[in-house]
Amino acid sequence: MSRPDLNLLVTLDVLLAEGSVASAARRLRLSPSAMSRALARLRETTGDPLLVRAGRGLVPTPRAIELRERTRLLVHEAEAVLSPVEALDLERLHRTFTLRTSEGFVERFGPELIARVGAEAPGVRLCFVHKPDKDSTPLREGQVDLETGVVGKAEAPELRVQALFRDRFIGVVRVGHPLSQGEVTLVTYAAGRHVFVSRRRLDKGPVDEVLAAVGLTRAIVTVVGGFSTALALARASDLIATVPARHTAGLREGMHAFELPFALPAFTVSMLWHPRLDADPAHRWLRGLLRETCAPLR
Predict the structure, then answer these.
(1) Are 190 and 216 spatial neighbours (Cβ–Cβ below 8 Å)?
(2) What pTM, to 2 d.p., does this model score?
(3) Cα(244)–Cα(167) distance, rounded to whole angstroms?
(4) Tens digits of per-residue pLDDT, 43-89?
(5) What is the residue range of 40's domain?
(6) Which of 52, 103, 171, 246 is the most buried (most CB within 10 A)?
(7) Which residues touch 150 (CB under 8 Å, ≥6 apart)?
(8) Do 201 and 256 belong to one domain?
């Protein structure tokens, strides 16, 4: 069975609204003969004359009267589907956005982001989920709307990426810790007891590679999954935490921070999203809020 020509819906809508082949032709910028042929196709398709002669004019058949309102609604819906999205009304927006990020990122930027979302779009809810790895599947499958982190080779190449801020690693200890007094050297840093952060449960990282290059090793006495946990342990013990400076600024208040006695490359924290959400006005608005929330750290 052949599929109907959906373009005929527009023609039918105008014919039933005008009740005249000539008027409908002018409205659609067609010749009267072209409109007559279109009417003939509509009659064949619907199996009804639709418009019949009554004196000098045309009158709709019962079938045409039945179709008039349905046709008008269908054409209206089709035009809405094929038209650009109207301006975003944040006060009437009701939506839940899922953000996949680290606990430290939520603790650092979550309060301000939630406050700004609530002020501009009270019907929007943010759902933060833990990011245990760099697998892009949640973004690809629509389980996650937005993600933050350091871009690596594991991310899907089609993802959209925008930098949020640059960061670097520093050392952090409790006030009164031996490393909080005087200069921190490679030897004194390596000689301390360390808490290591690894979401993949590794027991070594870039710091250990740098130390190994100069013949030193450090004692990692515990491994945790997030920077906030590492700072909490360092605050209550003699452990040394090595954490991102800007990322953890609000989490290490009241603690002593020091520059590492060796060079580690800085890194960029970015937000990532799937291309299907690129043009979505609400998603674009949320991305803008996140950029502005992180802007002071650029």
Answers:
(1) yes
(2) 0.68
(3) 6
(4) 988 888 888 888 778 888 899 888 888 888 888 778 767 766 667 88
(5) 7-81
(6) 171
(7) 267, 268, 269, 270
(8) yes
